[in-house]
Amino acid sequence: MLESKIIKLTTTPDGFGIQTDELTQDMFASALPTQHSHSFFEDEALGLYVGLWDTTDMVEAAGPYPCEEYMVVLEGAADIKNAQSQNTETVVASESFVIPQGYNCQWHQNGYLKKFYVIYEDSQMQTENKNHQSIIKINDLQATENRVYYRNALGNFIVGAALYPLTDFVQQISEYHTFIYLRKGRMLIVSDDGNEHWINATEAVFIPQGTSYQWRAEEPIKQEYVKVRSV
């Protein structure tokens, strides 16, 4: 059984950048880059992976994207090209976006990039997704807006954003594996064992499914979230 432990993500985990990822030439339409990964959470049975990744210049091989993936760009910029229309969309530092599983695209990287990622792989999904012809950017919210930006066909990978006012402690049990990226404000999350996790703007936290915890908004907050669970 996986440990139910709240995890605060960091952009500089111990050892990151020392061990390079194993890459093969068939993965790229360019020379091999240098890439590093750090996993904060893995559930291979579910196909869920939460981590930190970086890369140097590269062009990936074009084709249907093998997973659902939400990303927050921490450093750098990238171009995501539609492999059929050749339309290119650019994402830059501080932006977040989703590449749907099966979207036929090609990643073009010019310069260094670092990102947080939430990956969900499901064998039930089709290998090509013709419903999406672009990435899905998570745009800044208006003052009173809460919305879901993306939900996969199975309904178990959900990406959205929410606004909360100043809030006293709220008791909650996570019904999903939940990743939170705080865009604005400051919040406190307290697990049942008493561990406190202060989350500031531009920081992230992961809460495993079934975790009981309390949270409080120290000031009005704006957060993006990814929710994943088995069907």
What are the SSEs and their pairings?
Elements: E1 7-9, E2 35-43, E3 48-55, E4 58-59, E5 63-64, E6 68-75, E7 77-82, E8 88-92, E9 96-99, E10 104-109, E11 113-120, E12 136-137, E13 147-151, E14 157-164, E15 167-173, E16 177-184, E17 186-191, E18 196-200, E19 204-207, E20 212-217, E21 221-228
Antiparallel strand pairs: 1-19, 2-3, 3-11, 4-10, 5-10, 6-9, 6-11, 7-8, 7-10, 9-12, 13-14, 14-21, 15-20, 16-19, 16-21, 17-18, 17-20
3D structure, described in words:
Helices cover 0% and strands 52% of the residues. It is mainly beta. The strands form four sheets. A six-stranded antiparallel β-sheet has the order 1-19-16-21-14-13, with no helix packed on it. The relative contact order is 0.19.
Q: What features would you highlight for this structure?
A:
231 residues; mainly beta; six-stranded antiparallel beta sheet; single chain
Brief account:
With 231 residues, this protein is an all-beta fold. 0% of the residues lie in helices and 52% in strands.
Helix content: under 10%
Category by helix and strand content: mainly beta
Question: Which series of helices and strands comes N to C?
Answer: EEEEEEEEEEEEEEEEEEEEE
The description of the largest β-sheet is: 6 strands, antiparallel
Radius of gyration: 18 Å
What is the count of β-strands?
A: 21
The general outline is globular
